[in-house]
Amino acid sequence: MRLGLMGGTFDPIHLGHLVVAEEAREQFRLDRVVFVPNRQPPHKKDYQVTEAEHRYAMCVLATASNPFFEVSREELERPGPSYTVDTIRAFRARVGPNTELYFITGADAVLEIMSWREPDVILGEAHLVAVHRPGFDLGRLAAVVGAERAARILTMPMPGIEISSTELRRRVAEGRSIRHLTADAVVDYINKMSLYRP
């Protein structure tokens, strides 16, 4: 079995996340992709993250129509910062040694992997998939992480979908539409819960 793990803040989840997950599923022949919203992202201390339960609910709504997607509460139920290595260990313990794990994340994050907790354990326990993002040069990956580590990182070209959670939050705060940038159910949830409003 091949299991994709897509960790993130998902504040809010958007169509770019869904396209990346589906593309990874196809490119790497994944049986399932599990979205893992984090409780407390250790790398995003600059802004107040929306309450975890709202982010979880939006992930469930956005992925409901895809039978290959599911959403995990793994990081939400673990106290403290959400470290990738802890999540990969938890999934490895749950699925056993015969399941291949693929951790899917953006090129921006992969270029910072040496600042993550226990990067070599992550690379040893899971295939790390670096998704191309505009403005981030994966050609310098070997220079940043070393040739041996870079050889263990899979890269995934993506069509240019320039949607970001930051942009969605800004648009909502300005009273602008986010329809067609995220799932309609997520738009409705954001409006119902008055999220991202000043």
Description:
- The chain has 198 residues and is of the alpha/beta class.
- It has a single domain (2-193), classed as HUPs (Rossmann fold), CATH 3.40.50.
- It is built from 9 helices and 6 strands.
- It has helices at residues 15-27, 52-63, 84-95, 107-110, 119-125, 141-145, 147-151, 165-173, 184-193; strands at 2-8, 32-37, 69-71, 100-106, 127-131, 153-156.
- Strand 1 (2-8), helix 1 (15-27) and strand 2 form a beta-alpha-beta unit.
- Helix 2 runs antiparallel to helix 9.
- The radius of gyration is 16 Å and the shape is globular.
Condensed summary:
With 198 residues, the protein is α/β, with parallel strands linked by helices. The chain has helices spanning 15-27, 52-63, 84-95, 107-110, 119-125, 141-145, 147-151, 165-173, 184-193; strands spanning 2-8, 32-37, 69-71, 100-106, 127-131, 153-156. A six-stranded parallel sheet has the order 3-2-1-4-5-6, sandwiched between helices.
Key words describing this protein structure:
39% helix, 198 residues, six-stranded parallel beta sheet, Rossmann fold, 6 strands, alpha/beta
Number of helices: 9
Tally of extended strands?
A: 6
- The number of domains is 1
In what range is the share of β-strand residues?
Answer: 15-25%
Helix content: 25-40%
The gyration radius over C-alpha positions equals: 16 Å
The whole-number mean of residue pLDDT values reads 94
State the strand order across the main sheet: 3-2-1-4-5-6
